[in-house]
Amino acid sequence: MNISDITALIGLSISSLIFILLASRAKTSKFSLIGYTMADKSISSKQYGSSFVAASSSLATVMLFFLTNAKFYGLTLLWCGLTYLLGQYLFVRYVRDKDVIKEDVRTVSDLWFYTIRSKVNARIITALTITSFLIILFIELYVGSIIFGYFFSSFTPYYGVISFIVVGLIVIYYVRIGGLKAVMQTDGWQLMLMLVSVIAVLLFSILFQSENGPNFEFSKFFSFDAEWQNTLVFCFWILIINVSLPFTQLSSWQRVAACTSGEEVWKGFRSHILKFSIIWFVPVIAFAILSGKGMYFGDLGSFLDAIKSSGGISELVLYPLIVIGFGSALFSTADTALIALTTSLADTNTFKKSLEKLEVKKLKLYITIISFIIMLSLAAVFSVAQANVGEWFLPLIYNVFGQLGIIAPLIIYSLWHLKDDPISLKPTGNWIISISILIAWFIIVYATFKAVEESNQLWSQLSTPIGMTLTTFGLIIGLKFKNLKTQ
Question: Which GO terms describe its cellular component (predicted)?
Answer without folding.
Answer: plasma membrane
